[in-house]
Amino acid sequence: MTAPSIDIALFTSDQARAIDRRATDEAGMPGYELMNRAAASAFAMLRRRWPAARRLRVVCGTGNNGGDGYLVARDARASGCEVVLFALGEPRPGSDAERARRDFEKAGGVVHPWGPPTEPADVIVDAIYGTGLNRAPEGVAKAAIEAMGTEGAPILALDVPSGVSADTGACPGVAVRAEATACFIVHKRGLHTHQGERAGAIELFDLGVPASLRGTPDAHLLQPATLPPRPRDAHKGTNGHVLVIGGDHGTGGAARMAAEAAARTGAGLVSVATREENVLAMNAARPELMARGVDGPQTLAPLLDKASVLALGPGLGQAAWGHALWTTALDANLPTVLDADGLNLLHAEPRDLPGRLVITPHPGEAGRLLDRSTADVQDDRFAAARELARRFRATVVLKGNGSLVATPQGAVFVCPWGNPGMASGGMGDTLTGIIAGLLAQGCDATEAACLGVGLHARAADVAARAGERGLLAGDLLEPLRRLLNGRED
Ligand SMILES: NC(=O)C1=CN([C@@H]2O[C@H](COP(=O)(O)OP(=O)(O)OC[C@H]3O[C@@H](n4cnc5c(N)ncnc54)[C@H](OP(=O)(O)O)[C@@H]3O)[C@@H](O)[C@H]2O)[C@@H](O)CC1
Ligand SMILES: Nc1ncnc2c1ncn2[C@@H]1O[C@H](COP(=O)(O)OP(=O)(O)O)[C@@H](O)[C@H]1O
Ligand SMILES: [K+]
């Protein structure tokens, strides 16, 4: 199967700092030279994006992110812009930022202490915090960030939108929402998940730092991928048999959606083991699915014998019926996607798991599995996904804006697609079915999770062209089929 081609590397702040140090020590690129290049790149980006902008406001913090800001302000003045620069404090003596401030002043620039702006600006440059953010902004920084958010002028963030953690995408307090961010040297992983979307459109400038100094990235962005065309002699037996197990009283729809998604992803056969009461409706609405009523392990066993992949959990419930099916299904040791109540049952009853396993928790389910709050998971999604992958020896999909795929070996892939229209019931069930359908066609757990998460979110983006509100999980199926067959961008 084609694995996604992975070529956008993401780094932590610590890694970015180490690369900065290596650039200075090993490549003879002093920090101040890099700061000048950062400012020149950011100002060129500003000119490109807002060619008519004449009045700029630059808000500088006390660290090197502020230093970048002073030099953007200097360059902007030199090219004829009106610049009003606010400083939130004094740079550390002897720092590159202090030197940048002196250079700005030497060139005739005036530094104002922070105060509510009276002049309108065409563009605001956010140079308060970059990779150095280590707590919630308070005092003047908080006031400045809040003021930026109320003005309506577009914001260009330098390196990181201030207030967003470059490592996790979490915001400990107030944070800038930028229209665009000029990212320096390497992509910061936190700008691609959770609240990292506050960065807006990201442009990366490597500042001439050689790629050889980067070292091993912490994570990668997923790239668009599809399955290769089927061989001419393919038959349904060569494309696997997915068995969806779920659909307790009142939640038959979850199992049906997972099953239909598996079929639309190209699984050769799809069966559903569910409550008897769901069977008639399922078979009538989608006759290609083979829905069977099961009342316990005995009636499930023959279906397990025929299946090659399980999708275990959609609408399963946690009562005796669901628990009995869950135990029997996991004992079968088939390649499995475990979701929803399948995960909640695992939290209640730790046990041996199949060797080829993908688990797909949303942050709430991830929190339960790790005995942590949802907020704790969101505070560091990378750490939570890795911890789950290690603990359960499974490929983990941690869902939510910027879904993560983590492998037991510690690799992490970040999904750059998806939209808030996906916050609607059944989206997770659809993802479960897609991943199961890919496993059935021969993908390994990580390929299936990466490809499945990407196809699901890209299909949702295509479907959301008609509007995010009102997007239904079922709307994904048509674009999913086209994307899977390489027919849609
Ligand atoms: N060669 C290089 O290194 C290059 C670096 N470059 C640029 O430098 C940026 C990193 O600079 P930086 O390390 O000085 O950190 P920065 O983000 O400016 O923060 C400064 C200090 O603020 C503080 N602080 C943090 N949070 C706070 C809060 N909530 N409220 C109050 N204070 C808070 C904290 O200090 P503390 O108060 O904890 O001592 C922190 O150290 C990077 O993103 C890029 O833009 C580019 O020029 C390219 C070359
Ligand atoms: N704001 C969002 N941005 C991107 N993706 C989202 C967003 N909200 C939800 N999703 C995606 O939609 C799916 C929702 O899954 P889940 O919460 O399990 O839903 P359900 O249980 O209703 O099926 C996940 O794949 C998640 O990543
Ligand atoms: K910034």
TrEMBL record:
Cofactor note: Binds 1 potassium ion per subunit.
Quaternary state and interactors: Homotetramer.
Keyword annotations from UniProtKB, A to Z: ATP-binding, Isomerase, Lyase, Metal-binding, Multifunctional enzyme, NAD, NADP, Nucleotide-binding, Potassium
InterPro entries: Carbohydrate_kinase_pred_CS (IPR017953), CARKD (IPR000631), Nnr (IPR030677), Ribokinase-like (IPR029056), YjeF_N_dom (IPR004443), YjeF_N_dom_sf (IPR036652)
Gene3D superfamilies in UniProt: 3.40.1190.20, YjeF N-terminal domain
Cofactor(s) annotated in UniProt: Mg(2+); K(+)
The protein, known as: Bifunctional NAD(P)H-hydrate repair enzyme
Family: In the C-terminal section; belongs to the NnrD/CARKD family.
EC number: 4.2.1.136, 5.1.99.6
Source organism phylogeny: Bacteria, Pseudomonadati, Pseudomonadota, Gammaproteobacteria, Lysobacterales
